[in-house]
Specification:
This protein has 102 residues and is mainly β. The chain has a single domain, classed as OB fold (Dihydrolipoamide Acetyltransferase, E2P) (Beta Barrel), CATH 2.40.50. The strands form two sheets. It has a five-stranded antiparallel sheet, with no helix packed on it. Strands 6-5-3-8 form a four-stranded antiparallel sheet, with no helix packed on it. A hairpin with a 6-residue loop joins strand 1 and strand 2.
Length: 102
């Protein structure tokens, strides 16, 4: 099974309240054995915007070369935004969503 994680804390606060936001992306290691130019797509989101999530919780499932890959949250927080909707394709490094840490 391909292991993925979230990554990339934002450079600054998400809002004026000083809350830290991080971006949800597939771990670069997930793409190592994939041919250049290959895209994946979100099979389904398991949580909705505004839902509270915990560290390690699977937020979405991505389809990468006909293999379902879990996309977990790196920390507890609130799913602030879904950037790539279910059924939409994405390339390596694409931000899939954003979680505000709590």
């Amino acid at each position: 099974m391909v292991q993925v994680s979230t990554g990339g804390e934002a450079a600054g606060p998400a809002d004026g309240m000083g809350k830290v936001m991080s971006s949800i992306v597939l771990d670069p290691e997930s793409w190592e054995s994939v041919e250049a130019g290959t895209e994946a797509y979100i099979e389904q989101w398991l949580v909705a915007e505004g839902d509270h999530v915990h560290a390690g919780q699977v937020l979405a499932r991505a389809n990468l070369l006909h293999t379902l890959v879990d996309v977990p949250s790196a920390h507890a927080g609130v799913l602030e935004e879904i950037v790539v909707a279910a059924g939409e394709k994405f390339a390596p490094g694409t931000v899939l969503g954003r979680v505000i840490a709590t």
